Amino acid sequence: MTDPIRLLVTIVEHGKGERITNLANAQHIHFNLLLHGRGTASSDILDMLGLGSTEKDVVVCALPRSSVKQMLHSVAEEMRLKRPGTGVAFSLPLSGINELIARIILDERKQQDQGSAQEEAADMGAEKHWLVLAVVNPGITDQVMAVAKEAGATGGTILHARGVGRENAEAFLGVSIQSEREIVAILCPRAKGPAIMQAVNASFGPKSGAKGIIFSLPVRDMMGIGVTAEESKP
């Protein structure tokens, strides 16, 4: 593996998310999702965190780790994140991602992917749970969950999002991607994560009618679903 894939998450005021996706597209980062959210913290806490109003745009970009600092700098400059109340940006490692999608992301940055799947080799393996995310075309989330449950999942959450920069992504994938997307989020034990990802990818991957992008995030600390904070720690 030459360059692990990261997720760059930016939270800004509602209506400003497309400025970030424009920056991403200009840097040849084409796998982006724009979600609309609402903050629930008090205004004092939101101001302290630099999040301002409660209505939010959440932009999620998939990019090589080597590109994270440059993109963070561009976002910080464009959105003036050093000023209070303007927003926040951070990156997350992936514990797994479709091989095809990983190769495309790296090829866009003129990198060669030698692995069968992208995994964060360093700082991985200590987590006890994964968050598996399947980004698919609308209307098939029930089928996705059915396949995931057959592979060991116990349940999931459905989110609605809008893909941005999809024309460029379509050119690389050779498939048509709808602008409106749905996300199936599945929290599962780490031991079940690979099987769930493989099953969902086999039926709903990029070359299927779902045009799915499947990846996972390591979960280090967690409360609920039968575990305590102490039990969730490695």
UniProtKB/TrEMBL annotation:
GO terms for biological process: regulation of nitrogen utilization. Pfam families: P-II (PF00543). One of its GO terms (molecular function) is enzyme regulator activity. This is Uncharacterized protein.
